[in-house]
């Protein structure tokens, strides 16, 4: 039985027509749709946009001190601001408002700064050593930049003791700054003993 002598030609012709149609559609798509070049797939995503426009810098040594799986985000955010010295302490406000009082609102005995608040201030010096004592860690009185280096070294790894110490620092810094805000803007204050007594209020 003889086969269709034109069969192979029809199949080949149909294949060529289909490939030509697909190619034309692809060219038309590229011509009428924007292609997001930062992505290897040509499709926009928030992650690819972030990678495109952010300034890439090496990871800082203290990153694991602030950002870790068990952290409390709003408390870690305050710690991040403190480490970068970006809180609105009075010494910083003084640079653009010369008439403001610069005395620490927590102790009323020294110029308010990041180094003073954490933990040179008599008020905060009554909190942090007590927290460390409960963690079984001795307190070395260090200026804030050296303290960050010390804490980073002490909190390496994922052990329970490391996580507890990082959380303790998070909570302490957060409550110090909340007390600062209450005294500065609400004319409300609490004694040191209140900050050392559970349960903790995370509002």
TrEMBL record:
Region described as Disordered: 1-21
Domain Reverse transcriptase zinc-binding: 44-128
Domain of life (superkingdom): Eukaryota
InterPro entries xref list: RVT-Znf (IPR026960)
Cited PANTHER family: OS12G0587133 PROTEIN, REVERSE TRANSCRIPTASE ZINC-BINDING DOMAIN-CONTAINING PROTEIN-RELATED-RELATED
Name the record gives this protein: Reverse transcriptase zinc-binding domain-containing protein
Protein's organism: Malus domestica
